[in-house]
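The protein record quoted for completeness.
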Amino acid sequence: MRFAVELFFDPKADAAVRALWTGVEPDHLTPMGARPHISLGVYASLDPDAALPVLEAFAAREPVVPLSLAFVGTFASDEGVVFLGPQVSPELIGLHTRMHDAFAGLGESLRYYRPGNWVPHCTVAWFLAAADIGTAIDRCRRASLPIAAQATHIGLVGLPDVSAPTPISVEHRASYALEAP
């Protein structure tokens, strides 16, 4: 099973992103049990029993991170992804780098999530047909952007095998509050 380390938002920002999810057809994320998030790392193999204490200790020494989900984007891929992009800040980049340092030796993050390659994003739609991407982007553009958010929690999530027959779901292993003053 693949695992992701994800940043979760405060309740107001969470609700704003969920409203976008349910307004885009088809909504694949809500039925999967996903939470609005920004992935810091995705691991093809990772021992969750070894990772959880590291993540808990990491969360205890990291502060809440202010975010501004300010723009809409898509990836040039066949996965049909539309996302909200946060304004990149030193706080966000620093948190990302420190998380990868903390997880060194636990597993190797997929290259698109490693420091220097990472494109931080909050997925709004996934598995869209090419014809539906423009509609999803339009819906996001009409939303009240930027969405002010705070990354208040960090979690370890088991990711579904997207090649498996539906329904697929994420497996939330643990979530810890970012607690440093």
